[in-house]
Design brief:
Elements: E1 2-8, H1 13-24, E2 28-34, H2 48-53, H3 57-67, E3 71-75, H4 81-94, E4 98-102, H5 104-108, H6 110-114, E5 121-123, H7 128-140, E6 150-154, E7 157-160, E8 191-193, E9 196-197, H8 207-214, E10 220-221, H9 224-238, E11 243-245, H10 254-267, E12 272-276, H11 283-290, E13 294-302, H12 306-312, H13 319-332, E14 335-342, H14 349-360, E15 365-372, H15 380-387, H16 393-400, H17 416-431, H18 437-446, H19 457-471, H20 474-492
Parallel strand pairs: 1-2, 1-3, 3-4, 4-5, 8-11, 11-12, 12-13, 13-14, 14-15
Antiparallel strand pairs: 5-6, 6-7, 9-10
Length: 493
């Protein structure tokens, strides 16, 4: 069976695992993708006008047609869902091909997704087994009414089958099909790697919160043997220069980390970065990471208001733990990024002022990544947002249908004063790595930050690029090298 995945954005490990399972079952798998350059999903350079110029939907549809698929699959986030519906509709107008929607948005709002005429099937939850079974049933003409995790239509009536438990032995899955994205990303310079599924935390704004509520034991970690098997294969195949462990929290299990780092340093030894949490970061973790090649950690702090972090966001960690973690990184020579979130219920100007003063004194701070609170279906944060007047009950329907903001570039804040405040501090935080501590404190004491929203977007981007060069930000360098190639491919590929 010919199966085509359609994706907006950069590499997607979920699709790579699905492809590996399908190829193992004997199916032919192709990928059609759109980088989404300068659009709302671009996490580096969001510029709406170039984004519209480089919009390549018609080319995506033509490329899908050329693959002559029997089944077209979309793995969608809330932010890419409407784009995927548009592509699916355009494809169906040209040929009567079946479409499958999966991914986190389809899992969290399956009823809304299946009720679109562009969608024939929805896979809820982990999709490896369900998609392989569906492909097998379609190709052989068998019924799919007993495939767990599947939503489908029968003579216009929506049906959904029983939900299956998550994969218990993730070591038993085939290695992700990295070749699927090999022509679109350079695995050697930035190999994306997952060592677990799920997250031990259940922050109210995060999609992992929903998965932890519908499943027991959703967080599962691969064995060190499994991780090293993939890394050795990848190193032999691509000659790795850098690795990014994209687990929600890489180092929450010290016993596992000790064993992995011992073998990683001896057998692989290339620089890597990871996501982490201040709650689990101590002297031993810092030493294990630093001594075995970690060049950067990204910490999800979100806010310096501990009450909001604890009671609204449901996050672990105190400000004192955050300060200790960042000081350890300063002392050990580990660069770090900090995620800071805007648009939170109950947040005030004083919260961002406190954060600015705190961040200005950090020596190894690489970037402050400014995120918007983004509303996804059925999360606990939505109730707090309704209670605080940030959204209405009617907005929840729009969220189910993908009509919401974007955590990177397009916020959902309706209050004009809050929007102004957030734009001021976003611009300040984005350029802060360039500013001496005394300058930041002067900006705060003089309240000059009130005018930072008037700094033109291209100027902010230029200053961010300058900061990246000064800080020797490896990933920024990588993006800068690749953007010309991606632009050419978007225009002529």
């Amino acid at each position: 069976m010919r199966i085509t995945f359609v994706h907006q954005g950069r590499e997607n490990i979920g699709i790579e695992y699905l492809s590996a399972v399908l190829k193992k079952a004997g199916h032919e798998v192709k990928l059609v993708s759109d980088y989404g350059l300068f659009g709302k999903a671009d996490n580096i350079f969001y510029m709406p006008v170039p984004g519209r110029i480089l919009d390549r939907r018609q080319r995506v549809v033509s490329e899908i047609e050329r693959t002559n698929p029997d089944l077209v699959c979309f793995s969608v986030y809330t932010g890419t869902y409407i784009w995927a519906l548009d592509i699916a509709g355009k494809v169906k107008k040209k040929r009567p091909v079946r479409t499958v929607f999966g991914g986190i948005h389809a899992t969290m709002a399956p009823e809304a997704v299946i009720n679109n005429e562009e969608v024939d099937f929805v896979i809820e939850g982990e999709g490896e087994a369900a998609l392989a079974e569906l492909a097998g049933c379609i190709s052989s003409g068998r019924s799919y009414e007993n495939i767990k995790n599947l939503w489908y239509k029968n003579n216009g009536t929506v049906r959904h089958n029983e939900r299956r438990p998550p994969v218990s032995d993730i070591d038993g899955l085939p290695l992700p099909d990295k070749e699927l994205f090999a022509g679109k990303t350079n695995h050697a310079e930035d190999y994306l790697m997952l060592t677990n599924r799920g997250c031990i935390c259940s922050c109210t704004y995060c999609c992992e919160n929903y998965m932890n509520r519908i499943y027991r034991g959703y967080h599962r970690r691969r064995s060190v043997d499994s991780v090293m098997r993939e890394l050795r294969y990848a190193n032999d195949r691509y000659r790795l220069r850098a690795i990014w462990f994209i687990d929600s929290i890489f180092f929450n299990d010290k016993t596992w980390l000790r064993e992995l780092m011992k073998r990683y340093g001896r057998e692989i030894g290339v620089p890597f970065r990871c996501f982490g949490h201040v709650y689990f970061f101590d002297e031993e973790v810092a030493a294990l990471l630093k001594n075995n090649g970690c060049y950067a950690v990204e910490f999800g702090l979100q806010t310096l208001n501990e009450t909001i972090r604890r009671e609204v966001l449901g996050c672990l960690g105190s400000n004192s733990q955050a300060e200790k973690a960042f000081r350890l990184c300063d002392e050990m020579g580990i660069k770090y990024d900090i995620d800071h979130m805007f648009g939170l219920p109950q947040e005030k100007e004083e919260d961002h002022i406190r954060a600015a003063v705190f961040y200005s004194g950090l020596r190894r701070l690489n970037r402050i990544k400014c995120h918007n609170l983004t509303f996804f279906p059925r999360l606990e944060i939505n109730d707090a947002a309704v209670k605080n007047g940030l959204i209405t009950r009617e907005d929840l329907v729009d969220i189910d249908n993908g009509r919401t903001g974007n955590f990177l570039n397009i916020d959902s804040v309706k209050n004009a004063d809050m929007r102004k405040m957030n734009r001021n501090f976003k611009n300040l935080f984005k350029i802060m790595p360039l500013l001496p501590e005394s300058t930041v404190k002067g900006i705060i004491s003089s309240r000059t930050y009130r005018f930072f929203r008037f700094i033109p977007g291209p100027v902010v981007v230029a200053l961010q690029v300058t900061a990246a060069f000064i800080k020797r930000d490896y990933r920024y360098f990588m993006y800068m090298r690749n953007y010309p190639r991606w632009i050419i491919r978007s225009l002529f590929g």
